[in-house]
Design goal:
Distance between the termini: 14 Å
CATH superfamily of the largest domain: 2-enoyl-CoA Hydratase, Chain A, domain 1
Strand content: 15-25%
Number of strands: 11
Number of helices: 10
Number of domains: 2
Strand order of the largest sheet: 1-2-3-4-6-8-11
Structural class: alpha/beta
CATH architecture of the largest domain: Alpha-Beta Complex
CATH topology of the largest domain: 2-enoyl-CoA Hydratase, Chain A, domain 1
Length: 269
């Protein structure tokens, strides 16, 4: 049975809706009238809850999506008046803290992009290990359009998805990328019709939630390390990771299930 946990229990219209079902924590940005921008209350939710979700062993996958016609249209321009460098840096550091949990924790992340993903919303979409986009989804950087630099790590994430040349194109020109191109160039893993988005995204999330958490966490780590180190250093880490995996109860269950021709039970069935 699903459980809903708004950040503020007494709020009739919480900024983010959180539900739990069979190991999947669904995080739905809930400011559709404002295109789910990263308003202060949405940021407060992410700062508080993302580290808690990643640390919760009952949460086997995090699924992030938006309400209405937008995934997330980026930062709240109404709060972007002139700021002193120290306050901007502090705000960026608070962003980076919860983003680091999403990217470097063991919990897999699926993003279901249901519409506009712009600015920091584009960055958030790229934080999914697997991004499922609706056919009506669009992506736009938009930072230099308002005279600011790319943030929330998109300058790190985008080149790894599409390559440096395409990343410069998208970050410098701010052109809109539709779902077809997004899949072709490596932004989105899958594209489905609007009405199939959540069904497909939840199917992916449940596959990950039902999988072996140690092996999935180690696999995320190995992919991340592949961009950060040499071949020699990488295979040393790979050997240690595989040694841990081979000595785990997950491996015993996986091999047993394969030989017995049954579905493995990794503790979430």
């Amino acid at each position: 049975m699903s459980e809903q946990k708004p950040l503020a229990a007494d709020s009739a219209d919480p900024p983010v809706l959180e539900t739990h079902d069979k190991g999947v924590a669904t995080v739905r940005l809930n400011r559709p009238q404002a295109l789910n921008v990263m308003s202060p209350d949405v940021r407060a939710y992410f700062e508080q809850r993302i580290p808690e979700l990643v640390a919760d062993p009952k949460v086997r996958c995090i699924l992030i999506t938006g309400s209405g016609k937008a995934f997330c249209a980026g930062g709240d321009i109404r709060t972007m008046g002139l700021s002193d460098p120290a306050s901007v840096k502090a705000r960026m550091e608070s962003f980076h803290a919860w983003a680091r949990h999403l990217l470097e924790g063991a919990t897999p992340v699926v993003t279901a992009v249901n519409g506009t993903a712009a600015g920091s919303g584009f960055a958030l979409a790229l934080m999914g290990d697997i991004m499922v986009a609706s056919s009506g989804a669009t992506f736009r950087a938009g930072f230099t359009r308002i005279g600011v630099c790319p943030d929330l790590g998109i300058g790190f994430l985008l080149p790894r998805a599409v390559g440096a040349q395409r990343a410069r194109d998208l970050l410098l020109t701010n052109r809109v990328v539709d779902s077809k191109e997004a899949k072709e160039i490596g932004i989105a893993s899958r594209v489905v019709s609007d009405d199939q988005l959540m069904q497909e995204a939840m199917s992916v999330a449940r596959t990950l939630a039902d999988g072996p958490p140690l092996a999935i966490g180690l696999t995320r780590m190995l992919v991340r390390r592949s961009f950060e180190t040499s071949w020699s250093s990488f295979v040393e880490v790979e050997a240690v990771a595989q040694a841990a995996a081979f000595s785990s109860v997950e491996k015993a269950e996986g091999i047993g299930a394969f030989l017995e021709k049954r579905k493995p039970n990794f503790g979430n069935n």
